[in-house]
Amino acid sequence: MNIIKQQPKHFVSLDTLSLDEIMGLIEESLRYKQGNMPPLFDGKTVANLFFENSTRTKNSFQMAERHLKVQEIPFDVATSSVTKGETLYDTCKTLEAIGVDALVIRHPESGYYHELVETLNIPVLNGGDGSGEHPSQSLLDLVTIFEEFKTFEGLNIAICGDLVHSRVARSNASVLKRLGANVVGCSPASWWDESMGLEHRDLDDVLADCDVIMLLRVQHERHIMGDIFSKEDYHVRYGLTPERVERMKPQAIIMHPAPVNRDVEIAGSLIEHPQSRIFPQMTNGVYARMAILNRALGGQL
Amino acid sequence: MNIIKQQPKHFVSLDTLSLDEIMGLIEESLRYKQGNMPPLFDGKTVANLFFENSTRTKNSFQMAERHLKVQEIPFDVATSSVTKGETLYDTCKTLEAIGVDALVIRHPESGYYHELVETLNIPVLNGGDGSGEHPSQSLLDLVTIFEEFKTFEGLNIAICGDLVHSRVARSNASVLKRLGANVVGCSPASWWDESMGLEHRDLDDVLADCDVIMLLRVQHERHIMGDIFSKEDYHVRYGLTPERVERMKPQAIIMHPAPVNRDVEIAGSLIEHPQSRIFPQMTNGVYARMAILNRALGGQL
Amino acid sequence: MNIIKQQPKHFVSLDTLSLDEIMGLIEESLRYKQGNMPPLFDGKTVANLFFENSTRTKNSFQMAERHLKVQEIPFDVATSSVTKGETLYDTCKTLEAIGVDALVIRHPESGYYHELVETLNIPVLNGGDGSGEHPSQSLLDLVTIFEEFKTFEGLNIAICGDLVHSRVARSNASVLKRLGANVVGCSPASWWDESMGLEHRDLDDVLADCDVIMLLRVQHERHIMGDIFSKEDYHVRYGLTPERVERMKPQAIIMHPAPVNRDVEIAGSLIEHPQSRIFPQMTNGVYARMAILNRALGGQL
Fold first, then answer.
1. Residue B250 lies in a domain
2. Which of A196, B212, C230, C274 has a CB 3.0–4.6 Å from the CB of B157, allowing a cystine?
């Protein structure tokens, strides 16, 4: 017990990773996609704590865990002692005490992880924090873009929609600029977030020059849009319609973190359009999360 | 990518299978019961999407998956993005995108699977659709009958109770007639379903001649019976009582898909009666679902 | 089928085990902690039926199952047929019929297991019954005490707090006395339970002589304490404060089954105090449950 304790490999924000580390994770993800599998972690266990609903992120981490032969300790918020008032810290410390090797956490409170990363001896993998960040989604978005263009340098990327409530927008805008992309934002004035430091543009003005259109989900569950415009109005003014797709470059791609509101952010008929990467993003998400888990559990890059 | 895409081996209704295929699945189930195990599917994954409550069907598929070393990707409707309005199609397509190899689905909408089987590239295994069908339950019922009598030809079978709301009745009536059994229906007039094409008989008139009494669950959750008759009345007029069992042939068997309403469809004391196959049906259900999964995942018969 | 049926190795109360058996389980747990692993149970399955919320007990059994390579059949009360009125007996018999090898059950009804142990052919492992017992928690408490002191004989142990609603108090008071410890109870008069046969003492009078202070959870979910005293009052009069810890023997230990109400039973700052065994108890719980499962599944001690 005389050895120096190593800091757990938390994964809470891409901002804390160097560009080298980020590029390493992207390339690792794509190696997994090509069938080069990492070492298995037989005997290691992970708990997935989702304090907000999820299909994609949770199931994607679970698939990544199975590929890595990591065992899952099921954690169901609704039937846990959280309902008896147990704090997040005590819940996580309990899972550490029973031997869980890493925690995937989604929580409605932005920055929930600050206390945890200072005190836990096991890594915290952020599956989304309030309106903060969603770094595993950002990583899979980066994997999808890099797989397509083999670079980020000089790419024209428009992030479109509800920027102010989106944790994906925040994570992505920051890292894409660091990686050399030209990023603009397109959104209704009421959903614009000045603090992201993006240039505000009209989608119709930039569409023809974009390499990547990143659509954001209209957050019904966080934000009622009825007061501002109807779904139909939003679709016509800000959504991706078949007419707008016609004006995109043929090699440009469409992205969306999903779940999609069909015919709001994007016409339902475009979700599986040849230029759409919406479902391939989900496929890449499994490989991205394998890279995140491999890093957390002490595997080699 | 030049190869011809093979159609996924959906399992949505016994009506779409030939009698040869059905007999193949029955015999395969019984081989598993005798200890002849199929090849294992290590590395394959299945998600079980239950949009209606279940113990037997869900746990039975889960047990079959474990016997086959198929990994389960847990799917909990209540904490999924379905709560954010995601469609069934988008949810299933998401699971396909993250690499799930087959979907077991129970859904309250009859025929929910029609859209899915035309569009998904992975098999859909129907765990019950509304008041439509419940083909894995039918298969386990067939396995139980065939195990007992080694044939279906000429067997006298009475399906008794709430025919109109029962997806088991519909599946079973159809396939048992195809297999050569004589099937009659016994039910209160208000629960009779003319469209099944069965002869309507009084249970007390056919009891002595039956080889199989298939009781149906009174669907409290779908149908309030209080208006029509009390539980006690139902039991006396339509339920299986110890007196009625006395009049059955000694080699005849009693079946019920469960969960049982004790002392409604059947006296509680008869559930584990020597002629009851209620719990053995559940045991057979695991082997039947192994056969269904083996077929879906590309194993050999 | 001519062989004599062996009685399943239920684990419902420490009262039914001899002191030799209990000491055997304690020593077995500590052997696992030292890395001597039991045989694996590949192919065996366990279902965990929690009719009351839990983090520690459920996750701890699940971790023990994974260490033993026992497969879990997920059971979710909220989406099971229990919601259709299925009885506990029928639910358990169903799981037996589909081939589950052991059941871990937590249920709000004290003594729920009496009917089950007479009828089921698979072992029932009690994860807590109403205000009855919580024998796996007792076993892990014993493991923690024995690990510390290498004996129970002559130890001075105070069980403190809400004795009347605590299933841990009942289990522990009984077994610790059998093992030779001197056990007293410290509690508000309204939470005193004469039937446990303990001497009633004031915590401040016994503190300096105790080897073990076992704090109990104030059961908010079972008992509203607002009428009697505030949280602050309780903490000052009955809780473990930093001042009280100063008066404990330096080698004495603090225990609590958790979840802890911080600053009620114990000051939040003391939970990870050097003399606290609260998180180590959870770690030991996994080893204790491995011993319980190993016994139930037919492994050798």
1. yes
2. B212
